[in-house]
Structure formats: C-alpha cells, structure tokens
C-alpha cells in the first residue's frame, strides 16, 4: 500500500511527538488555567478561621439544576398567581421565601441561576475572572504586590534576604440592583415574558459587572482596573492618538511579562476592535498582519468601555485593558433577592403594572494589579 508524502510526514511527526511528550517543556502553562491553557480552574481561599472558600472560574456554574429551570417563569407566575407551565422544581422553588413586598427571597441554588446568567453576559468573566461566594458581608483576603527573589549560595553561605510584599484585600459586599416595570397584560398574554425578563435582568447585571471591574471608581461602588494604582500604563499621547499598528498591545503584553505575568486577554470598546480589524499596511493597502503577541490574546468587546474620554484636546478617547483576568475576583453574597409589587411606586396599580426588583451584593478585588496594562487615549 502506497503512502503519500503528507501522510508519511504526519505519521513520523506524531510518533516523534509521542516519544518526546515526557520531556516536553510545560513551563508555558498559565497559572489558574487547565491543561488547555484556555479554561480557568477553581481557586480556593482560606480565611483567618481556617475555612476554605472555593472561587468559580468562568466556565464553572454554581447552578446545578436543569437547563429548563427558569427564574423568569417563576416571577411571572407569582405576579399573576398562575403557576400553569411550571415544572415540579420551579413550583417548589416558587413556594420558598416571602419578601417584605410579598415578593420572593431566592434560595442559594436559585440565586446561582441568575448569577451564572449575569456572568455569562460579562466580558470580564469570560476573559477569566473568578466568582467567590461570600458567606459573610465582609471577607479579608491577601494579595501579592511584590515577588521575592531567589539566590544561589555557597556551602555554609547565607541566603540573601529578599522582600515580598503582601497587602490585604477587604471584600465588602455592596448593593447592585435592577428595577423594571412590566405590563400585567403583557405578562398574561406572552408566555415567554418570564424568560425574556430573566434574560434582561441577567444581561443588565452582567454589563454592570463589566463596568465596575474595569472602570469602578471605588466610591460608593467597587474599584476597577481603571483606578488601581499599580496597573501598567501606556498612553497614546497628551492629546490621544489613533491606532496605526499593534505596537501598544505588544508593549502591553510585555509590561505584564516584566512582572512575571502572562497576559491572556484584551477587553476594549467595539470601536477599538473594529479599528484594529480594518488596519491596512501603508504601502500595499493590504490587511495589516498582527504580531503573535496580539494574535494569542483572547479578544472581548464591551460597550461599557466608553469612547468619550477626555485626554488633552481629545474628547473622543477610549481605553483597552490587557492582562491576566484570572486576577480579578468578584466577591458575591450567596443570596439574591427578587421582589415585586402591583401596588407600590407611582401609578403602578392604576396602570395595571408590576414593579420588579432584583438585588445582589458584591465587591471586586484585583489580586495582581501589575498583571494588567491599561492603554488609554485611543481615538479614531
């Protein structure tokens, strides 16, 4: 049987690779990721009482129920008093917990469904951020802000002492909520209204998770990357500047590597992404080839990063964040509160409407600030 040259080369290469597997260098493996270097694995934190708290990676789900379980369907059913169409698990969940407004205090398992949905809509989570359930309103963790140094010593010699810096992270749950108004007629007539409501609430919370992790001021809300002191900075100039190549992104990856980090993703505004997508070589007008450092980054787009920042004379600037997003941690209180009323609020009763409020409590921590680079002053 004859074998083509391509088939022969593949057979030989596969055998060589298999023989060398025990000796292959695996130092490129990204901390916090699985063997595929793509899927974040769980992290665990120990508090001062010695209790272990597991954080969940972007592809790990806290909700263990079936895909057909719908929080939105339960909300619709409880508002209308009509439980037709709910499965047994949904009916059981609907009977638990009555809030001060006659609403629904969601148990931990059901809370996880909405929180998982919110995380699915969050670019920061998809880029690798972890979620840590907070058993108490406040938690104290530790982050490394400076690495120690290793030294070689002669026999009987002294090891040179080096400094490593640890700083506390205080997670303090703050309230984030969504308040929406719905027509009773719409809820009655549209069977999928509950599912649409669940999707809308999840998306709203997910977008806010993005905004606060990237841009949070730290005053009345968590502090995000934009306001962290030790994030690496790359400016496009006193008055901003346009993107003509990928140099800033290559430099951003290098800045992270200089601090022993591995940048795995970049998050930017849609305008920035598509500007890069359309870059052309000046001499040939062909599509500009991106360097490997940029190709290797996972790209995420969010409109939570604005395009109206002021930098000098420029009022249309934007930002991009490059880094290892497994170093962002969302501390989330376990329970979610969903309440609704057909009477409270302005003219709710008169207009045959319902007010629906979803409330969660969370905080954001950046574990290694210098494992991120902010590129700012990006303009068209």
Beta strand %: 25-35%
Gap from first CA to last CA: 60 Å
Please state the structural category.
alpha+beta
Query: How is the quaternary structure best described?
Result: single chain
Radius of gyration: 25 Å
Helix share, percent: 25-40%
Number of domains: 2
Largest sheet: 7 strands, mixed
Helix/strand order, N-terminal first: HEEHHEHHEEEEHHEEHEHHEEEEEEE
Estimate the global geometry from the Cα principal axes. globular
CATH C-level of the largest domain: Alpha Beta
Poorly predicted segments: 23-28
Architecture per CATH nomenclature, i.e. the level-2 architecture of the largest domain: 2-Layer Sandwich
Give the number of helices.
10
Topology:
Blueprint: H1 5-20, E1 43-46, E2 52-55, H2 71-80, H3 88-94, E3 104-105, H4 108-120, H5 123-126, E4 130-134, E5 138-146, E6 165-172, E7 174-183, H6 184-189, H7 193-215, E8 232-235, E9 241-242, H8 247-258, E10 265-268, H9 270-277, H10 292-295, E11 298-301, E12 309-311, E13 314-323, E14 328-333, E15 337-341, E16 353-366, E17 372-379
Helix pairs in contact: 2-3, 2-7, 4-7
């Amino acid at each position: 049987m004859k074998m083509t040259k391509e088939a022969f080369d593949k057979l030989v290469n596969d055998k060589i690779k298999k023989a060398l597997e025990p000796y292959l260098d695996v130092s490129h493996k990204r901390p916090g990721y699985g063997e595929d270097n793509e899927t974040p694995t769980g992290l665990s934190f120990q508090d001062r009482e010695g209790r272990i708290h597991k954080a969940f990676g972007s592809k790990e789900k806290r909700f263990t129920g079936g895909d057909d379980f719908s929080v939105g369907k339960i909300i619709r059913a409880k508002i209308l008093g009509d439980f037709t169409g709910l499965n047994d698990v949904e009916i059981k969940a609907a009977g638990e917990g009555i809030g001060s407004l006659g609403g629904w205090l969601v148990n931990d398992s059901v809370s996880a469904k909405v929180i998982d949905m919110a995380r699915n809509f969050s670019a920061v989570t998809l880029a690798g951020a972890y979620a840590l359930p907070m058993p108490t309103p406040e938690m104290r963790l530790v982050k490394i802000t400076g690495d120690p140094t290793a030294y070689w010593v002669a026999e009987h010699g002294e090891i040179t002492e080096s400094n490593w810096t640890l700083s506390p992270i205080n997670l303090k749950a703050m309230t984030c909520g969504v308040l929406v108004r719905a027509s009773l007629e719409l809820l009655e007539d549209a069977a999928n209204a509950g599912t649409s409501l669940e999707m809308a609430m999840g998306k709203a919370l997910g977008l806010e998770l993005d905004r606060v992790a990237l841009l949070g001021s730290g005053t009345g809300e968590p502090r995000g990357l934009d306001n962290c002191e030790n994030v690496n900075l790359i400016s496009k100039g006193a008055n901003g500047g346009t993107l003509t190549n990928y140099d800033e992104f290559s430099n951003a990856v290098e800045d992270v590597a200089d601090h022993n980090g591995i940048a795995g993703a970049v998050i930017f505004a849609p305008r920035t992404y598509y500007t890069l997508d359309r870059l052309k070589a000046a001499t040939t007008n062909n599509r500009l080839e991106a360097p490997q450092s940029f190709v290797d980054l996972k790209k995420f787009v969010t409109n939570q990063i604005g395009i109206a920042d002021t930098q000098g004379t420029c009022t249309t600037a934007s930002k991009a964040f490059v880094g290892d997003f497994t170093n962002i941690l969302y501390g989330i209180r376990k329970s979610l509160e969903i309440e609704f009323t057909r009477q409270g609020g302005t003219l709710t009763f008169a207009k045959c409407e319902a007010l629906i409020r979803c409330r969660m409590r969370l905080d954001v921590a950046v574990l290694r600030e210098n494992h991120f680079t902010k590129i700012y002053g990006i303009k068209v």
